[in-house]
């Protein structure tokens, strides 16, 4: 009636995209990611000249590349963060299909760069690792399937997502890339946990893992030695971990000084897997703690925002993306301080790497799209629809 | 009052009602669905909280660990093997039963060179050759100027040498810490300890591994880093061991013997308190294994354990004790000793003719081969074999030394009746002196089997029963009488009630048959006879006692006096009080003044 009398409320049809984005985006997480990228550039200045020297390039060749890729990655991140969850979902499903095909074709078209595992496509000017792009798309796809399963007459999405996870993990393990396989499996597990995995199943799984671990420790001398060696306080200083540990010790609280570090000369992966050791040596504990705080802020902050989220899909996708991001960082740093056994895993946004930067941009962009503030129907709680 | 509804409206009203009810049902279903969603959301919220907490804790843990690392001192890069299999230079001490050091470690240095860091290789080579006369200057120079980036110069250097090398001032000469195994008592207990040398070597440490004796046998335990502070306690008593070695040394010289061995063992616990074999060596500089000559003459050869000999009449106590145990004879049973005794083409003779018959006791006291052969014939081969086996005389001893398994007894190929008879007086079966000591311990300790051990143990071994306590007492008394009125009167030490048996066995020639001027003479005994606690075995190799008109080789003249001297020296060290006869008379002499 009101419409008939007064005309409709003039819809703010042109609700400007940028102001709304700025209003609703998780500014904390965004700044943290920018900060990490900046730190990555700073460390690249320190860590990559030895590599450039080895490859006969200009000392700051890799820094320039990192900056170029980083800007591209940030652009991708911003674009993704402006999308609506529905758009993200569509793109992710599409992207999953593409990267899955790319992953499947790796054994035929990929290259191993002499490292023994075929994980890359060489594009001449850059290389491209399909599994990096697969991860965020997989997370969003699984979140969609699991959320669908929560509808009263929805499809058996959990089962489907589990099947997809198994296939992807198997393909990654065959490359072999156990690190990525573990990450994919972990992300699925986290989403399943939040989507309401039965407590008994979780407890049973925990029990089986504990039991199997104990059994393996007692029965297999090899396994026991690996574990003992890992747990023992002494570390062979000639290994990468040994150098990394020593670098952290050398650095102390405030570092040995910019450019004064030595670990970057002895560690072949100083610019990727062990960038945290370079940070610790040259800038000390202060910078390391700052990096940890930034990662923690992104992860815990995003999860905190998702607490308020009522849409199951958004909740699950956000959780998965945040956890993958956080765990990857955690594994990288955990290896350097010997909390975890050695595993090649880059530090998102900080480590050098073209395609991984862009893939990181996509993942965090999707995460930011999920954590944007939006109406959650809290009005229903206030009005009290319950009897 | 409302008018009743018009009948025409009734169908309409009922249709309206059912529609309302349906709507209500729908909305109830929706409500349930919303509630389910709410429950799922709350659960998801809770689990998200858990996730948040986990991540927070994990990041905090990593940060904390980083802080711990940053706060700790960066160590020198140590190069001591890989993490999974580090080279550990630690080795536990070995001490005697009273905690006195038998083997320990000394921190020394090793010397090595990194030629690429050298400033003046020629001078370094010259100076090194001056400090270490056994180094060849040209060879050093060749090493220092060649391709090599690492050269060991000396595995161990003394502090004086360290300083001298230091004074060369050559940066390419480097020192690494090096644990050295030290045996502060020199040659004492050399065979038992064995010796040690280096295993895998690193710049910063080297494995010290045992090469012989208990060092080798307990190698893993001694190198166990968890037990490096706990010394290995042996049953050896250092002072008794020293006394034994000194007396043996003197006895060997006096008796013109080429070798000697002595064992002092606790008859109840099986602990070897002292065990020596001469000639011996200094484990601090263990001689190389001889490549020529009889290995049995090498100083490395442990006669007590590895030397299996036909030990002769000392075996006689076994058939007599077994005969008593089986009820075939008793101590007074008269045994036919008319000789020579012929069995097929063999003839068994006694050293002297002891007349037509001797009591069982006198068969032992006078040492009659014919007498024990008769007893053995009563026992039979199978029972004899089983009896000796139950004493442990037919198998290598499970002693805690690697050499023990090489001391396997030599058994007759066929345990025939002639073997039965010769074994009864100690021929045809070769065992080590330590086997004999174990057998004697079982004879005198009340009749239970004893397995010799080198580890300190304080309670008696409750071994399998071999003979009854009564038989054991009779055997002990017979052994005592051998010393008081038999062949071993030189072994009597007043106050210690020594008992024992002598044995003089002709040495076999390499071609079969026996020498008539080379013997192994043995005294095996125990003390004090009233309650035997210690077993002693002394064996001399090729002794000749030349103080009399004609050379004497029998054990009564050679091994027995040496054993007596060992007991005289060792018994006080073992804390044994001599049984002093009560003084005659009132003990106080009144004197008039």
In a nutshell, what does this entry contain?
Chain A has 387 residues and is mostly helical.
Overview of the structural elements:
The complex is a heterodimer of chains A (387) and B (593). Chain A has a two-stranded antiparallel sheet. Chain A contains 16 helices and two strands. The longest helix of chain A has 33 residues, at 275-307. In chain A, α3 runs antiparallel to α13 (275-307). With 387 residues, chain A is mainly alpha-helical. The longest helix of chain B has 62 residues, at 10-71. The model of chain B is unreliable at 76-84 (pLDDT under 50). Chain B is flat, with a radius of gyration of 40 Å. In chain B, 36% of the residues lie in helices and 18% in strands. Among the domains of chain B are: 87-107 and 175-232, Penicillin-binding protein 2a (Domain 2), CATH 3.90.1310; 239-288 and 295-573, 3-Layer(aba) Sandwich (Beta-lactamase), CATH 3.40.710.10. Chain B has 593 residues and is of the alpha+beta class. In chain B, the strands form five sheets. In chain B, strands 1, 2, 3, 4 and 7 form a five-stranded mixed sheet that branches. A five-stranded antiparallel sheet of chain B has the order 9-8-16-15-14, sandwiched between helices. Chain B contains 16 helices and 16 strands. Chains A and B meet through α8, α10, α11, α13 and α14 of A and α1 of B.
């Amino acid at each position: 009636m009101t419409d008939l009398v007064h005309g409709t409320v003039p819809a703010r049809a042109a609700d400007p995209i940028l102001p709304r984005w700025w209003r609703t985006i998780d500014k904390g997480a965004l700044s943290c990611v920018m900060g990490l990228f900046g730190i990555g550039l700073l460390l690249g200045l320190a860590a990559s000249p030895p590599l450039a020297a080895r490859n006969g390039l200009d000392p700051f060749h890799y820094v320039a590349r990192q900056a170029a890729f980083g800007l591209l990655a940030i652009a991708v991140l911003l674009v993704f963060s402006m999308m609506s969850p529905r758009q993200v979902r569509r793109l992710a499903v599409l992207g999953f299909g593409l990267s899955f095909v790319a992953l499947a074709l790796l054994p035929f078209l990929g290259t191993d760069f002499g490292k023994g595992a075929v994980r890359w496509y060489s594009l001449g000017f850059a290389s491209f690792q399909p599994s990096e792009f697969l991860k965020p798309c997989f997370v969003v796809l699984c979140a969609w399937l699991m959320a669908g399963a929560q509808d009263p007459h929805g499809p058996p999405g959990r089962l489907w997502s589990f099947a997809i996870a198994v296939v992807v993990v198997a393909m990654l393990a065959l490359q072999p890339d156990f690190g990525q396989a573990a990450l994919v499996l972990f992300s699925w597990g986290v989403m399943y946990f939040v989507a309401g995995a039965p407590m008994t199943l979780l407890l049973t799984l925990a029990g089986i893992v504990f039991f199997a671990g104990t059994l393996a420790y007692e029965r297999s001398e090899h396994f026991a030695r690996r574990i003992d060696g890992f747990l023992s306080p002494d570390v062979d200083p000639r290994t990468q971990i040994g150098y990394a540990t020593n670098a952290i010790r050398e650095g102390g609280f405030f570092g040995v000084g910019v450019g004064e570090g030595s670990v970057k000369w002895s560690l072949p992966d100083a610019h990727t897997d062990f960038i945290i050791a370079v940070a610790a040596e040259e800038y000390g504990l202060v910078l390391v703690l700052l990096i940890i705080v930034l990662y923690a802020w992104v992860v815990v902050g995003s999860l905190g925002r998702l607490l308020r989220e009522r849409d199951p899909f958004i909740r699950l996708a956000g959780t998965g993306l945040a956890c993958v991001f956080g765990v990857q960082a955690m594994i990288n740093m955990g290896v350097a301080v010997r909390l975890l056994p050695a595993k090649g895993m880059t530090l998102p946004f900080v480590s050098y790497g073209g395609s991984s930067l862009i893939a990181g941009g996509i993942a965090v962009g999707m995460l930011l799209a999920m954590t944007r503030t939006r109406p959650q129907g809290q009005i229903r709680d206030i009005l009290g629809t319950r009897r | 009052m409302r008018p009743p509804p018009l009948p025409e409206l009734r169908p309409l009203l009922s249709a309206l009602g059912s529609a309302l009810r349906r709507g209500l049902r729908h909305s109830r279903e929706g409500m349930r669905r919303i509630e389910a969603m709410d429950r799922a959301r709350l659960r998801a919220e809770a689990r998200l909280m858990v996730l948040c907490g986990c991540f927070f804790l994990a990041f905090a843990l990593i940060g904390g660990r980083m802080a711990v690392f940053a706060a700790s001192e960066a160590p020198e890069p140590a190069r001591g093997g890989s993490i999974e299999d580090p080279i550990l230079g630690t080795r536990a001490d070995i001490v005697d039963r009273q905690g006195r050091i038998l083997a320990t470690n000394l921190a020394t240095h090793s010397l090595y060179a990194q030629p690429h860091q050298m400033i003046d290789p020629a001078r370094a080579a010259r100076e090194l050759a001056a400090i270490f006369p056994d180094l060849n200057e040209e060879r050093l120079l060749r090493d220092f100027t060649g391709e090599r980036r690492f050269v060991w110069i000396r595995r161990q250097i003394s502090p004086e040498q360290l300083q001298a090398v230091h004074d060369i001032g050559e940066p390419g000469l480097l020192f690494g810490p090096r644990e050295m195994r030290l045996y502060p008592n020199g040659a004492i207990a050399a065979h038992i300890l064995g010796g040690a040398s280096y295993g895998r070597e690193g710049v910063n440490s080297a494995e010290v591994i045992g090469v012989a004796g208990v060092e080798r046998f307990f190698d893993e335990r001694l190198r166990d880093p968890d037990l490096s502070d706990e010394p290995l306690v042996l049953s050896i008593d250092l002072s008794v061991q020293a006394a034994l070695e000194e007396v043996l040394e003197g006895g060997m010289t006096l008796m013109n013997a080429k070798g000697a061995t002595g064992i002092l063992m606790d008859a109840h616990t099986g602990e070897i308190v002292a065990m020596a074999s001469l000639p011996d060596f200094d484990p601090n500089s263990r001689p190389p294994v001889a490549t020529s000559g009889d290995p049995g003459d090498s100083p490395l050869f442990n006669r007590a354990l590895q030397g299996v000999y036909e030990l002769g009449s000392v075996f006689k106590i076994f058939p007599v004790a077994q005969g008593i145990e089986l009820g075939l004879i008793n101590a007074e049973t008269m045994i036919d000793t008319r000789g020579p005794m012929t069995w097929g083409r063999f003839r068994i003779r006694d050293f002297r003719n002891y007349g037509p018959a001797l009591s069982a006791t006198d068969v032992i006291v006078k040492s009659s081969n014919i007498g024990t052969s008769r007893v053995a014939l009563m026992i039979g081969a199978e029972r004899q074999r089983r009896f000796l086996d139950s004493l442990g005389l037919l198998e290598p001893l499970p002693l805690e030394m690697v050499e023990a398994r090489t001391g396997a007894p030599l058994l007759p190929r066929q345990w025939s009746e002639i073997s039965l008879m010769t074994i009864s007086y100690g021929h045809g079966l070769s065992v080590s002196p330590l086997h004999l000591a174990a057998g004697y311990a079982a004879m005198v300790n009340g009749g239970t089997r004893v397995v010799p051990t080198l580890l300190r143990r304080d309670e008696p071994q409750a071994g399998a029963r071999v003979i009854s306590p009564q038989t054991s007492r009779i055997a002990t008394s017979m052994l005592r009488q051998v010393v008081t009125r038999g062949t071993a009167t030189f072994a009597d030490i007043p106050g210690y009630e020594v008992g024992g048996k002598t044995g003089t066995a002709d040495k076999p020639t390499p071609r079969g048959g026996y020498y008539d001027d080379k013997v192994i003479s043995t005294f095996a005994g125990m003390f004090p006879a009233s309650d035997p606690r210690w077993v002693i075995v002394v064996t001399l190799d090729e002794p000749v006692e030349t103080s009399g008109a004609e050379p004497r080789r029998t054990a009564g003249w050679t091994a027995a006096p040496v054993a007596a001297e060992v007991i005289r020296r060792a018994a006080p060290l073992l804390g044994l009080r001599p049984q002093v006869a009560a003084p005659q008379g009132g003990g106080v002499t009144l004197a008039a003044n």
